[in-house]
């Protein structure tokens, strides 16, 4: 069976796996973005706290994905729970690091001007600092999403959803007629999803980042 014949015959299953893969990455990125920005906001004013946040999330990223899933399975069981936990943890580093860098890079004179016109600390953060720090934060989100697209495939080891199941089925049946087709279909599906997500982020950047800041 040719690769195109395999795609035609398995179209419904591949679309379902692709949707689950995209949905898992998207939902985990929402959680990771909220957590990462909150951590950045809480730590960027302190040199040691910001460095600790970045170092901690960087350490999490050094744990091999199979090892992390293996550690999580006894605690959370198989399926969605270990997948979501692992993806959120892996997605934190680029967001936390860029949030800290972006917030620290805001011109202090702009913050002083906001303070001078009577803005509260919360208003300064929401209306001045976070909008100016948004471009690097968005870059961190883009990087984290691309990483999670690939890492999510490994979640099939823990019976997680997504295109990784197609890849694992192919790897476990190497030598069979459709093994290569399964691996190729899963891999190409992840690449397509990664490109679509990145295109969406480019559009979001054009809509939310003022032209002057984009340069």
Automatic annotation (TrEMBL):
It is found in: Cell membrane; Membrane. Gene3D superfamilies: MetI-like. It comes from the Bacteria. Keywords: Membrane, Transmembrane, Transmembrane helix, Transport. InterPro entries: ABC_transp_perm/SBD (IPR051204), MetI-like (IPR000515), MetI-like_sf (IPR035906). The keyword Membrane applies. Residues 18-201 form the ABC transmembrane type-1 domain. The chain crosses the membrane at residues 24-44, 51-73, 79-96, 137-159, 179-204. It is a multi-pass membrane protein. The keyword Isomerase does not apply. PANTHER family: GLYCINE BETAINE/L-PROLINE TRANSPORT SYSTEM PERMEASE PROTEIN PROW, OSMOPROTECTANT IMPORT PERMEASE PROTEIN OSMW. Belongs to the binding-protein-dependent transport system permease family. This is ABC transporter permease. It comes from Streptomyces aureoversilis. The lineage of its organism: Bacteria, Bacillati, Actinomycetota, Actinomycetes, Kitasatosporales.
